[in-house]
Each structure stands twice: as C-alpha cells, then as structure tokens.
Design brief:
Helices cover 41% and strands 21% of the residues. By secondary structure, the protein is an alpha/beta fold.
C-alpha cells in the first residue's frame, strides 16, 4: 500500500481533540445538572434522554472524520509486476565525479550542473532504458539498465566524489564499463552520454571510443566547465576551508578540455555539446535522439497503484448522514429491551 498525500495524516490529531471536547461538554452538563437539582429527579424530568445515543453519535462522527482524512491521504493498493512492450533505445549516462567537478566556474559547481543536465534529459525521455556509471580515477557502476526513471534520479542525486576511491579522471575506464551495460545480442540502439570537464589523467580514451564504435555504440560528450578554469574548493559543512593543491603545494586550476571530449565523440560519429547552457544541451540531445532508430523491447515494471480514496469518502458521508439523523432521545423499541439498564 502507498499513501499519496502523507501530509494529511497530521489531521488525525483532530480525533482526540473531538473526544476531549465531548468529555469536557459531558462534564459541564453533569455539573449543571447537579446545580439544578438531584440527578435522579433531573432524569425523571427528561425520560426520553438517552445516555447511549450521544456516545454513538460521537463514534459515528469520529468514523466520518477518519474516513474523510483517509480519503485526503488517498491510500493506493493493487501493485503488481507486469511485462510491457516499449519502443526506444538504451542510454548510459557516464558521470564524472572527480574532485575537479567541484570547481565553481559553472554555477553552482560542475558536478551539480551535470546532475541538473542529466535530470532534465531524463525528464524529456519517453520509453528509453537508462543506466548510470560514475567515474574518476576508475569507473563504478551506479545503476544498471532500467526503465525506472524515479530510481535513476534518486541515485543521480546521491553521486559525489567520495563514491570513487581512486581520484583523477579516467575516461577510457568510463567508456569500457559503459560498454558492458549493453547487450551485444540486442538490436537496440546504444548511446553513451558522457558528462565531464574533459581532464583525462589516463591514456587511451580515443582508443576506447573506437572500440565502442565497433560495438555499435554512439557517444555524445557534454563538456561542463570553462576553458579559463577555476579552483577546487575544499569545504566542510558548506564553508570553504582551503583549495586543492598539487604536489608543489600550488593551488590547482582545472580547465575544460573541449578538444579531448570532441575527439571521443568524433570516434563514434557522435557529437559534442557545451554543458554550460542547459537549454542548448536539451535541444541538442532531443535532436540527436530523434535521429536514432528506436527498437521494440520488453520491460518489466510495476503496474500503477489504484486509488482507494472514494471508498473512504463514501463511508465518511454514510457515517455523517447517520450522525445527522440520529436523535439523542431513546429509541422506543430499544428502550423496551432495556439493554443499558436505563429504565428503572
């Protein structure tokens, strides 16, 4: 079961408040009756007054309120796994999470800008399968090929330089690992979207791209950063304490290596786009995807939850209806049964 609007659960606090008001009112009535005269005499003056009916009306009111609140919460049930046929391509996002991506020459910083770009690209996808790879000095599988975009975004936001122990930037490792995500036997089009500042501390990125091309992969590279470059701030609790330094104790200036990213894309007849302008990236990716052939594939996914709010609202209105038309005086046929020993 899933609760669609959990915030309305706070309204359940109304129920004990209603009970408290009822008890206070009951106490006040009893107190006034004692002031008026002997309780037994007061009861004889109002023989049709029921002790049980007010409690029953309270219960009906509480059930009605509970039904209304649960209706607002909108519980959903009825999930199941089902296999559906979709048409699209397989896309792997290779995200650079090296420390150079913390440079703030692009707001808020290169890594956060990359996350925004990938999230926006995912938003405009239709029925494509996607996977995520993180890389720095080595590559790390984050999310296998899936059609669950919600999970992909969740993993995407959690990515940071600490998830890869080996620092540096190894573009060839990213390409090689991404290639393993694709099924060699599948005829589905394969696209790798590589997001980086292009600073490659390894050799063989172009060779890896050429091998990927032989496997039918196309690579689109997105460069994030400026050619002027920027420093790498080292923060604690959001406060800059120092800047990344090299072995000579000089502050590191990290710059966008556009030429390296363009060479990788060219090796697979792909393309390069500057990632500093999100709108430009989205338009470029959309046009590129429109030109790639879509193929049909089967995907296993969860069926939609079925809303159940109507049942709770229905019961709530029934209880309200009964409460409105239920009088506080004794019911004649129930009175004859004397179930609550009210007749003396």
């Amino acid at each position: 079961m899933e609760l669609d609007e959990k915030k309305y659960l706070y309204l359940l606090l109304i129920l004990p408040i209603v009970v408290l008001v009822f008890l206070v009112n009951l106490y006040w009535k009893r107190k006034k009756q004692r002031e008026f005269g002997d309780l037994e005499m007061v009861k004889k003056l109002s023989p049709e007054s029921s002790v049980f009916k007010p409690v029953l009306k309270l219960v009906l009111l509480l059930l009605a309120l509970l039904g209304l609140i649960l209706g607002l919460v909108n519980p959903k049930i009825g999930t199941k796994m089902e296999t559906v046929k979709r048409e699209g391509i397989d896309i792997v996002f290779a995200m650079d999470v090296s420390k150079s991506m913390l440079a703030e020459d692009v707001a808020p910083n290169r890594l956060d800008k990359s996350k925004q770009i990938v999230s926006q690209i995912i938003n405009q996808l239709g029925s494509d399968r996607i996977g995520i790879v993180a890389y720095a000095g080595s590559a790390f599988p984050v999310l296998p090929i899936t059609t669950d975009y919600g999970v992909a975004k969740m993993f995407l936001q959690s990515m940071n330089p600490g998830m890869v122990s080996s620092q540096g930037t190894s573009l060839d490792e990213a390409i090689k690992l991404s290639a393993t995500y694709f099924d060699d036997k599948s005829k589905t089009s394969k696209l790798l979207i590589l997001i980086s500042d292009g600073e490659d501390h390894s050799e063989g990125a172009e060779s890896a791209a050429e091998e990927a091309n032989k496997l039918g992969m196309k690579i689109i590279t997105i460069g994030v950063g400026t050619e002027k470059g920027g420093t790498i701030p080292l923060k604690r609790n959001g406060i800059v304490e120092s800047f990344q330094r090299d072995n000579n104790n000089e502050v590191v200036i990290t710059k966008l290596n556009r030429a390296g990213l363009e060479a990788i894309a060219k090796a697979t007849k792909g393309g390069y786009v500057n990632g500093n302008n999100t709108k430009e990236v989205l338009e470029y990716i959309k046009n590129a995807l429109d030109k790639i052939q879509k193929t049909e594939f089967e995907a296993t996914e969860m069926a939609d939850f079925q809303s159940q709010f109507q049942w709770f609202l229905g019961f709530a209105f029934v209880f309200l209806f009964l409460d409105i038309f239920l009088l506080e005086r004794k019911t004649s046929w129930v009175n004859k049964l004397n179930l609550f020993n009210e007749n003396k």
